[in-house]
TrEMBL record:
Keyword Hydrolase: yes
Record has DNA repair as a keyword: no
Keyword entries, A-Z: Hydrolase
Protein name (database record): Alpha/beta hydrolase fold-3 domain-containing protein
Domain Alpha/beta hydrolase fold-3, chain residue ranges per copy: 124-340
């Protein structure tokens, strides 16, 4: 099914004949629907956000190029729906998080709701990877559960909209809704750590840029696992064995590029699109990082995005000379893209979880 759905040597000349919905379905079918996370390791519960109940001032988008008008349209569309659109999310608690939070509540079941157990409780807002096309909170439950366990912190994992059904900036819009929802629930910006892997790392960075453009408070910090920060120019070649990476990337010239499917599925590549891909809300590395929140970047030593992650680290560091330690970049030799998800049994994953925990506890 997977190979049958993907045309041979596709080009923009034949883009109208490509069934992007079928291709997305084939890609999604190639992944497991969930990963095992035994109940004995912790608890989880699914919820949904009524998007009509999250007030977003669209006037704050007025000065934002490229994404601003589109975001305003998406917000207005949600408000005009007769039946509210629901954004699904899941609360995940490792046993260590339960032990830490249980003394602050009368009923342990309340920990499975998205409300602070006490003033100043830290919470992780997590956006999964999958190239903006695939990925689910069920698939990531083992990883988010292990992060919760390692950091003794609740994780809120969000099922944002995917492409090609929903083009840019629908994914970013959902991250903004989730962040504003946590604020409405009583969490302070200083208590929220935004995290994600790959495409989810991209969204974490883009959300933080968006909040700064809107003059809204930034999160306490960011945890980025193999983030995709530069969608216009990849820096994949860095002298290491990137061919051992598991990430397969179609070039931007291909209509099957995950970047183009995310941004404008079915649209030919134009000079205007290339320019728009340099927006910091699409390619976060093009934004300003002066005064950016503390950031942790976890990278596989042989992954395709090693060069981009290194460039991201250097840019954050160079733009904050008076803030030593504002950014930390850990590289794990021989590890591929988002190794924490696929190689959960490896000592490198255990070390990465330890670094995530240490970073969060320093915030």
């Amino acid at each position: 099914m997977y190979m049958a759905a993907i045309p041979h040597h596709p080009s923009d000349d034949s883009i109208e004949a490509i069934d992007f919905q079928n291709i997305a379905a084939a890609l999604r079918s190639g992944f497991p629907t969930s990963t095992p996370w035994p109940r004995k390791k912790g608890l989880s519960r699914g919820h949904c956000i009524n998007t009509k109940e999250i007030a977003i001032d669209t006037s704050l988008f007025s000065t934002i190029d490229v994404a601003g008008p589109k975001l305003a349209t998406l917000v207005q569309a949600d408000m005009e729906l007769q039946e509210p659109r629901m954004l699904n999310y899941e609360v995940i608690l490792g046993n260590a998080a339960i032990r830490k939070l249980e003394p602050h509540v009368h009923d342990i079941g309340t920990l499975l709701d998205a409300q602070p157990a006490f003033s100043g409780e830290k919470v992780i807002l997590y956006f999964h990877g999958g190239g903006w096309i695939s990925g689910t909170i069920d698939l990531y439950r083992k990883l988010t559960g292990e992060i919760s366990q390692a950091a003794s912190t609740r994780v809120i994992s969000v099922a944002y909209r995917l492409s090609p059904e929903h083009a840019f900036p629908a994914h970013l819009h959902d991250t903004l809704i989730a962040y504003c929802f946590l604020l409405k629930q009583g969490f302070r910006p200083a208590d929220i750590i935004v995290a994600g892997d790959s495409a989810g790392g991209n969204l974490s960075l883009s959300l933080t840029h968006l909040l700064r453009y809107m003059d809204l408070p930034s999160p306490a910090g960011l945890v980025l696992l193999s983030p995709a920060s530069n969608l216009r120019y990849y820096q994949g070649t860095h002298g290491l064995d990137t061919y051992s990476d598991l990430l397969v990337v179609n070039p931007l010239e291909s209509p099957l590029s995950m970047i183009r499917i995310m941004y404008a599925p079915g649209q030919p590549l134009s000079e205007q699109m290339k320019k728009e891909l340099e927006s910091p809300l699409v390619s976060p590395i093009f934004g300003s990082f002066a005064g950016f929140p503390p950031t942790l970047i976890e990278t596989g030593g042989c992954e395709f995005l090693y060069g981009d992650n290194s460039a991201l680290y250097e840019k954050i560091k160079s733009q904050n000379p008076d803030m030593p330690g504002i950014v930390q970049h850990d590289v794990y030799d021989g590890m591929p893209h988002v190794f924490q998800l696929i190689f959960s049994y490896r000592p490198e994953t255990a070390k990465s979880l330890e670094m995530i925990s240490s970073f969060i506890h320093r915030l």
